[in-house]
Amino acid sequence: MADMRAFRDEIHGWAAGGPGEPASDLAVRLGVRTAVLLEGPSDLAAVEALAARRGRDLAAEGVCVVAMGGAMSVGRYTGLLGPSGLGLRLAGLCDEGEQRFYDRALQRARAASHSAFFVCVRDLEDELIRALGTARVEEIVRTEGDHRAWQTFLRQPAQHGRPRQQQLRRFLGTKKGRKIRYGHLLVEALDHDQVPAPLDDLLASL
Predict the structure, then answer these.
(1) Which helix (H) or strand (E) holds 113?
(2) 142-174, pLDDT tens digit by residue?
(3) Nearest 5 degrees, angle CA 56-CA 58-CA 61?
(4) Which of 104, 44, 60, 43 is nearest to 78 (CA)?
(5) What is the spatial distance between Cα 93 and Cα 203, in angstroms, rounded to a whole number?
(6) Torsion over CA of 113, 199, 146 and 67, rounded to 10 degrees?
(7) Residues 184/49, Cβ–Cβ less than 8 Å
(8) Cβ contacts of residue 11 below 8 Å, gap of 6+?
(9) Quick one: which of 94, 125, 111 has its CA closest to 196?
(10) pTM of the model
(11) Residue 194 has what DSSP assignment?
């Protein structure tokens, strides 16, 4: 896993304008075959949590899960890692509202026919909240010691009258690191038959 983290770090450095040789060398040495492109670290936490629940070691399988730092980076990462770059198979999740950017990037990278991307209606947090139900998510919030913060959040004028699901989704993004922590926790709380289809299908495709 440590080597796969090093590979991931090299990818990020390359995407930021650094040299590509270290990433290329590590890809060969580690036998990397697939890059899973995700928008952010909370999505990464959720994917890795589900893989662990199912007894899969993605790094040992040659799968590198990458948080791109935003959907607008997809063109850069598909170019570096797809057929015109390292030649890896590409997979991942995208939000419905940003699907056109992913489609365009995959076409440009000549990767559309050899990729597996799955679409969340709004985002993965929204999929997880809907799968669990708002009452269960609120129970997890209480268990994690965030009940007081949640109640304070609900008293904000902007939250009055909003659907509970939207409130919970917004709450998860109000503090640095919270989305990442809950990305893992919400996946851990899912029953086997509750796993949202995009997440379930992604893991099955790897």
Answers:
(1) none
(2) 999 999 999 999 999 999 999 999 999 999 999
(3) 100
(4) 104
(5) 10
(6) -30
(7) yes
(8) 23, 35, 64, 66, 77, 80, 81
(9) 125
(10) 0.94
(11) G
> pLDDT in tens for each of the 206 residues of the chain?
569 999 999 999 999 999 999 999 999 999 999 999 999 999 999 999 999 999 999 999 999 999 999 999 999 999 999 999 999 999 999 999 999 999 999 999 999 998 999 999 999 999 999 999 999 999 999 999 999 999 999 999 999 999 999 999 999 999 999 999 999 999 999 999 999 999 999 999 99
Which residues lie below 8 Å from residue 89, measured CB to CB, with a gap of 6+? 33, 34, 35, 114, 115, 116
Q: State the CB neighbour count (10 A cutoff) for residue 111.
A: 22
Q: What tokens were used for 196?
A: 């949202």
Alpha-carbon gap, residue 206 to 204, rounded angstroms: 6
- Longest CA–CA separation in the chain, Å: 54
192 and 81 in contact (C-beta within 8 Å)? Answer: no
List alpha helices for the chain, DSSP H: 2-15, 21-30, 41-53, 74-81, 99-108, 124-132, 134-143, 147-154, 164-172, 178-189, 197-205
Tokens of 94: 């995208």
- Helix or strand run (H / E) with residue 93: strand 89-95
What is the per-residue pLDDT for 1? Answer: 53
Q: Cβ distance 147 to 141 under 8 Å?
A: yes
